[in-house]
Amino acid sequence: MPKADRWSSDEEEIVLLSLLPKPISHLDEGTYGVVWKARDNATQEIVAIKQIKFDSDMTKEGFPISALREIGVLLSLSHESIVSVREMVVGSTPDKVFMVMDCFEMDLQAAMKKGPGASTPFAQSEVKYMMRQILSAMAHVTSIARKYEHPARNMTQMVVTLWYRAPELLFSESCYGPEIDTWSIGCIFGELLIKEAILKGTGELDQIQKIFKLLGTPTDDEYWEQLWSKQGSTFKWKNNDSDLARTFAVNSFSATGQSYLSPDGFDLLSRLLSLNPKKRITAEDALRHSYFSCGVTEQVPMFYV
Amino acid sequence: MTKPDSDDLFSIFRLSTSDLVDQTLVLLKQEENPHYKCRDYLRNGSSSSSSRSRVSAEARAKVARWLADIVDYFSLQRQTVAMAMSYVDIFLSLRNVRAASEARRSVTKFQLLALVCLSIATKSLEVAHLDVETLVTASQGCYCADDIREMEIVVLNALQWRLCAPTSLPIAHRAIALLTKVVPRLANGANKHNSITSCL
Known about the structure:
The complex is a heterodimer of chains A (305) and B (200). Chain A has 305 residues and is α+β, with helices and mostly antiparallel strands.
């Protein structure tokens, strides 16, 4: 069993990393946990150590189910674009559980904000490279999840950071599949293009309004009509037309602060950000999209060098 | 036993032959994963009497039946017992873990291990879960809540959180489905596949 003194962490070296852009509320911080950078004294390698956080009342029933399943899934993943979990370590008391992972210099958001050339947009070839990495990682996760599918996935709606949360989750749909993840990838795609989160809601209601403002209110949509009538909703949403084409300029070199976007790229973006989850493109299909097979070839982004 | 299983048998029987072969291979490959390695701890050749395993085949079977009783009472899946017993076997196979050698020597510790493994399997497979109070009751007061919580973290740590351990049931289901495709004559007999679920 690994000993706790195998890893040393210099207090000053502690870096707060998070898998998704900055946690917005205290609850989010709880779900992601804090990550330290540390040195493995046995191999001298630099690793990232994430503490699985849980409240004392959560441990009344022993190790929390959500954390148990998350760890199980992460351990079963193995993909070049997914951070790999090296091992799990238990500290001096049972509530101190750590996940030892490969360490990376920066996460995507840090790369966008601090990397070389941070003030200029990414080249289309770089965006394409990153999008393929993200999508192929997601396709891998989906295939693993299918293998270990649990009878019912009764999770709360508080599962994804607000800005990346799919619209159906905001309407308390509790049963969902991989479509919510492809929505998040659509948000990240937009963010890579303009180097800024595209849907920065200040709360759940505001988030819905921002989504409908960007993508139009889903009128005449079977899925949304069903969902709203099921919930007995009488609330009338302001009728908007989609603003997506105006927000993301296609074939334009003059668009200020935006990466060049081909018509194929715009098509993929709009399919990822489909309001109807049933019509949203899957990660596998997205990888087969003409965006990746036509136009400029992919290129490793500057900050990797 | 006609209890529904985690594997939806109906859909397994409708899979194509190549899908069945693929799935069976994945399941078989899982057994080779070093994390799920098992040794025959029931018949260990240790010479010193102090470290000899007191867990016999009978004791193991008895404990498996006990877990099955609990699972049936709460209308959970039998597959959960199979998974729990898989954790028990992997844990008892560990050589350098103190709690594992204790569980091999002491019947009380062995039963606690089985109960905790059932709880972990329930957490990872079932929608409902058995709360600690229920487990205390199931042990008829043999163990207190703290015993269970402490043992749980020891077991999780020893298993290195690898909780997708292989069990024979999913492989058996696919093997039967494959056979019925290859030998159509067997198809009628396959209706009796439910009886397999009750043999662990």
